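re the bet — no i am not wrong, look at it urself. input seq straight from the record:
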Amino acid sequence: MGETKIIISEKDLKELRRAKELLENPGLAAKITNFIGTPIEKGLEQLPQKWSEKIGDITKDALLKAADTAVFTMNNKSEKKSSNIFHKTAVAVSGGVGGFFGLPGLAIELPVSTAIMLRSIADISREHGEYITSAETKLACLEVFALGGKATSDDGTETGYFTVRALLAKSVSEATKFIVEKGIIEEGAPVLLKLVTKIAKRFSIQISEKAAGQSIPLIGAAGGAIINTLFMDHFQDMATGHFIVRKLERKYDPTKIKETYINIHM
C-alpha cells in the first residue's frame, strides 16, 4: 500500500501563505526606520557602551516576570477575536512613559510592556484554538519573542521561522516536561532559565532596535509611544503567524506543513 497523499485545502493554503507573509516580513528595525525616517544604525551608535550586556539582563528579567504574571494567570475562556487594539493602547502608554525617561526608563518600562505583549500573544493563541492552560501553549507564547529578529546563528539554508523553532526545540521540550511534572512554573528552574536565556538572546536584538529608535533626538515620549505600538504590532504579527502554523500542524502532518511553508514563494 502506498502512502496516503495529504492534500491541504485552498482555505488552509491561503492561511499558511498569510502566516509566511507575517513571519518572514521586514523586521522591526525596518519598520522603525520607516517611521523615524532615519536609519536605525544612527540610534544604535548613540546607545551607551556595554549596552548589550545590560539589555541582555533587562530582557531576561522582563521575560521571566512576564511569564510569571501574564500568560500563566490566564484561562481558556476564548473571545471570538483577540483584543489587539486594547493591548496596543496599553503598550503605547507604557512606551510613552519609557520614552519620557529615556534609556534609564527601559528597565522599568520593559517588564510592563513585555507582560502586556505576552497577554496579547496568549489572546491570539486562544483565537487560533490553543489551550492557554497547557504547558506547551504557554511556552509557545514565550517562543514568539524569539521570532522576527535576525541573529548571526540563523541558518540561511532554511526559512527563519522554522530555523528558530529548531534552535529552541530541545529547550522547549525539556521545559514542557518539567512544567507538566511539577504542575507549576518556577522562575529559578534551570530548564526554564535555559529556554528564557535562548529567547532573550534573540529578543534583546529587537529591544536594542526599539531602544535605538527611542534614543534618536526629538523622539521623546510621543515617539516612544509610537515605537512601542510598532513593537506590539510586530509581535502580534509574529504571534498570528506562529499560531496559524501550529493550528495547521494540528490539523495536518507537521512535516507536510513545514514543507509547504518553505515552498511558498513570496
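see?? The mean pLDDT is 77. told u. also The chain is about 70% helix and 0% strand. so pay up
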